Amino acid sequence: MRKHLLSIDDVTADDIAEIFATAAEMHDVQRRDVKKLPALRGRTVINLFFEDSTRTRSSFEIAGKWLSADTINITGKGSSTSKGESLRDTVLTIASMGVDALVMRHSASGAALQVSQWVDASVINAGDGTHEHPSQALLDAYTLQRRLGSLEGRHVVMVGDLTHSRVFRSNVLCLTKLGARVTVVAPPTLMPSGVTEWSRAAGFETSYDVDAVLPTADAVMMLRVQKERMSGGFFPSPREYTVGYGLTRDRLALLGPDVPICHPGPMNRGLEIAADAADAAQSVILDQVSAGVAVRMAILYHLLAGEGSAA
Length: 311
Ligand code: NCD
What we know:
binds N-carbamoyl-L-aspartate, five-stranded parallel sheet
């Protein structure tokens, strides 16, 4: 594996298989009373989050702690960036303390790549603008693989606000790398420009008709309507979005009873996903969260302690 995890392009299918094998072992640790391994003793991991987060930040923190790394959290609001310090100065300041890994979330696409060029530490992209969120894609694929077995030839359908979704971009790269057939569905206003060319090059399909696609799905992934990234109207009303693209109770009936329902969270219940779907027996939304800790333990392990690690 490379020194940084900035994009799913940084990992091969073999790397992913290795990460998943380690994650399965870490999953066992998660079930123990004493959840501690010595693997990253003496290593320091800093979570540097300039955007809000519940799952990603806390699961990276827990992952680091269970591997015995020293982990600390820095958020944009409580840091000197709110006093006007530049990102470069903040990052160089933190790096000067002797840091082994920086887990970073920022609203600018490309921020993690930029930071990786400034510091010696490994940089993990925990979400950069609308660009990528590779650890989320890895935990999504891990969750699906545990449910479905191999993803080779399985049909994964992603529905929602694709324009603003870094989860969609990383997932397309990850799922196609693992041999899945991917269809992405959105209203025309939330279908990213240039997606037709990208879908041809990357080998996935696009659709505006969720009702036509759902019956053929082996797994469905609902994506959040990202109101905070929207300026102006992308759809006439929340009700109209739900009628056209939400996973409503009626649409749930289009899915086979064993088809896993994913959502990276946070969910807008009643908008992109109905409570009936979020809480259905076939929902794996909370499995994604617990897999998130195991997969992030595996990522930290491979970057900081594994063979070929830059450390
Ligand atoms: C995603 C993100 O931040 O990109 N959430 C997450 O990491 N679990 C998706 C989202 O915010 O909708």
